[in-house]
């Protein structure tokens, strides 16, 4: 229960970058839906949604607007030097702060700007948060490089020693959201037998990274895709890898995926809320994580096995079991069950690209010294 786990009956959810496309939609979902997760026996629990953005006018307006939504979730607006008040006693922080992609830009083009923003926010998190209990969900892109940027700051801080590296998650769930949606659409349009009911969605595991060909949709481990041709699967894989481009082009340069991302990150948040509320002792999630801790030791059971299969990469998106203490077990066996196309074609390309993305992130602090 939060009283034991948080030393308070309040669960504080913080969104940094709350006035943007993702931030606004995500905040609406939280304000309007999250209280449904609190059970009858948890009547002493309060939920506080704290929204921060450098855009003072917009974040104030968003909070004024959301404050009229008739749910018992407390909401507050923070801007400029209000970061300390926003972050103090945070239970979980979601970070969509940054610049989104424009047409023709890759996620990696965003790196320099967003690395600076995320790095500064990390300094404040280290200063104002209790790292021993905190969960951080990073949404800003490029995830493959920004998780390494954040990890380096977090583990080198004086506030270190709390295992925060086990509780930092790069959010990649939009890839499996897309993988499942595109598969369902294909099953319907091709009238393929899939074993699914009309209102049932397939679950497509996605591992690797969160940019172009670092994304590995594992259709071989989704029974609903069994009756599709290899050509169709190849098309689906490519569509998931570059699905973000469809949105950037459709919005004609005025934004990237915001609504589907807000939906996906809210799904992820609800899993963490189940942990914080004590509804379950552990959750299984897929996200982009560090496989080593602050002492360069394996971060959890299964880290060594995974690293031996991915040329010792330090970061990877993989299913994990997570408890209140953080990542507890890495479900590395998914790699052993890849089919030949996935393991011989997709995985080597992913590893090669991911290595460069990770190095870019790890070198960021050196480059600005
Ligand atoms: P947006 O431009 O609409 O919103 C970003 C917000 O961040 C703005 O309100 C801006 O004022 C704020 N911001 C900028 N610097 C800040 C700082 N230092 N502190 C606090 N707030 C700050 O962008 P959008 O569409 O919401 O995307 C946000 C990020 O999420 C982008 O980096 C984008 O690439 C990424 N993204 C990630 C996805 C994922 O699957 N992980 C999917 C889609 C987008």
Key phrases:
single chain; 369 residues; three-stranded antiparallel sheet; disordered N terminus; binds 1,4-dihydronicotinamide adenine dinucleotide; malate dehydrogenase; oxidoreductase
Explain what you see.
The protein is an alpha/beta fold and 369 residues long. It has 13 helices and eleven strands. The protein has helices at 2-6, 21-33, 56-66, 83-87, 111-128, 143-156, 173-190, 230-241, 243-250, 259-276, 303-309, 340-362, 364-368; strands at residues 10-16, 46-52, 74-78, 92-95, 135-138, 168-170, 206-208, 215-217, 283-290, 315-323, 326-330. The strands form three sheets. It has a six-stranded parallel sheet with strand order 3-2-1-4-5-6, with helices on both faces. The chain has a three-stranded antiparallel sheet with strand order 9-10-11. α6 (143-156) links the parallel β5 and β6. The radius of gyration is 20 Å and the shape is globular. The protein starts with a helix and ends with a helix. The model is unreliable at 1-7 (pLDDT under 50). The protein binds 1,4-dihydronicotinamide adenine dinucleotide. 1,4-dihydronicotinamide adenine dinucleotide is lined by residues 16-17, 19-23, 52-55, 96-101, 110, 114, 117, 120-121, 139-141, 143, 171, 174, 255-258, 261. 1,4-dihydronicotinamide adenine dinucleotide binds at residues 16-17, 19-23, 52-55, 96-101, 110, 114, 117, 120-121, 139-141, 143, 171, 174, 255-258, 261.
């Amino acid at each position: 229960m939060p009283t034991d786990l948080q030393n308070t009956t309040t669960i504080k959810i913080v969104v940094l970058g709350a006035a943007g496309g993702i931030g606004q939609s995500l905040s609406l979902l939280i304000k309007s839906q999250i209280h449904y997760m609190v059970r009858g026996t948890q009547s002493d629990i309060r939920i506080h949604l704290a929204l921060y953005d450098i855009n003072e006018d917009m974040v104030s307006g968003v909070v004024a607007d959301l404050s009229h939504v008739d749910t018992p979730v407390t909401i507050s607006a923070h801007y400029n030097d209000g970061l300390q008040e926003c972050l103090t006693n945070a239970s979980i922080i979601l970070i969509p702060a940054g610049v989104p992609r424009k047409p023709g830009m890759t996620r990696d083009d965003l790196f320099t700007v967003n690395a600076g923003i995320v790095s500064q926010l990390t300094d404040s998190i280290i200063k104002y948060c209790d790292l021993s209990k905190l969960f951080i969900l990073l949404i800003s892109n490029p995830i493959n490089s920004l998780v390494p940027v954040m990890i380096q700051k977090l583990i080198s801080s004086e506030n270190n020693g709390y295992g925060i590296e086990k509780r930092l998650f790069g959010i990649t769930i939009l890839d499996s959201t897309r993988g499942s949606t595109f598969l369902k659409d294909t099953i319907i349009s091709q009238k393929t037998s899939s074993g699914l009911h009309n209102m049932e969605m397939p679950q497509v595991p996605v591992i690797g990274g969160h940019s172009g060909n670092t994304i590995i949709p594992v259709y071989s481990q989704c029974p609903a895709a069994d009756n599709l041709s290899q050509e169709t699967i190849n098309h689906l894989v490519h569509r998931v890898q570059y699905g973000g481009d469809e949105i950037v082009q459709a919005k004609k340069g005025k934004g990237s995926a915001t609504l589907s991302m807000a939906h996906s990150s809210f799904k992820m948040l609800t899993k963490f809320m189940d942990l914080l509320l004590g509804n379950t002792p552990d959750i299984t999630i897929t996200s982009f994580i560090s496989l080593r801790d602050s002492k360069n030791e394996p971060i959890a059971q299964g880290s060594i096995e995974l690293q031996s299969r991915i040329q010792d990469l330090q970061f990877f998106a993989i299913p994990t079991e997570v408890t209140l203490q953080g990542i507890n077990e890495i479900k590395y066996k998914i790699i052993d069950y890849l089919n030949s196309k996935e393991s011989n074609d997709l995985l080597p390309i992913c590893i090669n690209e991911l290595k460069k993305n990770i190095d870019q992130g790890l070198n960021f602090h050196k480059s600005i010294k």
